[in-house]
């Protein structure tokens, strides 16, 4: 067994398997995920109590035909129409960073490429795609248009085909990083302030409200998690950001799940320091996400 505090992982994503009473923990597991070295793949861990884990186990290893070879980031696992789909970020020399979708018959993998190509625009630098199914059953990808290309990072959305193999609409911008009062510029490039968007995750509350958590930076380049609220209750918004982050202690790239006891839980990595990232699970309630007082 491995203790939670001894697991290196960024961008943790928890999948509860209710019949097994086990949680599957995925995330960025390459210790060399930032540099120009060849990427390894994605691993996962298994736990019944979110403190003691088995693993790591292999979820994905690329074969020679896989076009991506660096920066394997932020895998998310979504069960959809009886299969398990991995949304993950990749890059390669001569290609922009993007999200591709992989598939497996089992939660444990092995995952193999599924989407025809990246489901984010080829001419954009993108990352952190997540799956959202609207009330009509239409799948969407929600993702970040990256600050490294446009300075002020954006959260965008596009419709996916029902088989999740391609997009079927042009992306729309939901909001920009600087729209949130709590974000701060991390640097100035070409006289532009640079604001980060990371890790969007969409959550429908028990009363039908639609929220999104996402990550950026506050003062002194401290990583934080904010929350936005869709005034229409639909993915297209308009979206309004809560004035202060819900977590501001140098951790982020969060997702939300319910424990087997029904407790709403925020999963993040913390601290946001290279090589020191660990999974952290924080109990929250829906009032934590409440943005109704925003105009």
Automatic annotation (TrEMBL):
- Keyword flag Metal-binding: no
**Entry-linked CDD domains:** GH43_Bt1873-like (cd08981)
One Pfam entry for this protein is Glyco_hydro_43
Keywords of the record: Glycosidase, Hydrolase
Q: Could you tell me which pathway this protein works in?
A: Glycan metabolism; L-arabinan degradation
**Family, similarity comment:** Belongs to the glycosyl hydrolase 43 family.
Q: What is this protein called?
A: Beta-xylosidase
């Amino acid at each position: 067994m491995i203790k939670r505090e001894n697991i290196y992982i960024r961008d943790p994503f928890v999948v509860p398997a209710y019949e097994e009473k086990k949680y599957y923990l995925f995330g960025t597991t390459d210790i060399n995920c930032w540099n120009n070295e060849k990427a390894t793949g994605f691993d996962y861990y298994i736990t019944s109590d979110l403190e003691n884990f088995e693993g790591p186990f292999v979820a994905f290893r690329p074969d020679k035909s896989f076009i991506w070879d660096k920066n394997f980031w932020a895998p998310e696992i979504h069960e959809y129409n009886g299969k398990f789909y991995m949304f993950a970020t990749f890059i390669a020399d001569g290609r922009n960073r993007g999200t591709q979708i992989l598939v497996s018959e089992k939660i444990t993998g092995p995952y193999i490429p599924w989407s025809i190509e990246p489901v984010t625009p080829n001419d954009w630098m993108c990352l952190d795609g997540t799956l959202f199914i609207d009330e009509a059953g239409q799948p969407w990808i929600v993702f970040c248009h990256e600050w490294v290309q446009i300075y002020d990072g954006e959260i965008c959305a596009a419709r996916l085909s029902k088989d999740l193999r391609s997009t079927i609409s042009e992306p729309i911008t939901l909001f920009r990083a600087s729209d949130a009062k709590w974000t701060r510029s991390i640097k100035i490039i070409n006289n532009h302030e640079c604001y980060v968007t990371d890790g969007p995750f969409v959550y429908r509350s028990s009363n039908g409200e639609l929220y999104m958590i996402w990550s950026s930076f506050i003062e002194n380049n401290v990583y934080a998690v904010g929350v936005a609220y869709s005034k229409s209750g639909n993915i297209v918004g308009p979206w309004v950001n809560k004035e202060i982050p819900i977590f501001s202690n140098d951790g982020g790239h969060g997702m939300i799940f319910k424990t087997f006891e029904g407790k709403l839980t925020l999963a993040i990595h913390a601290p946001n320091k290279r090589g020191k990232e660990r999974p952290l699970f924080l109990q929250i309630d829906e009032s934590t996400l409440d943005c109704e007082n925003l105009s």
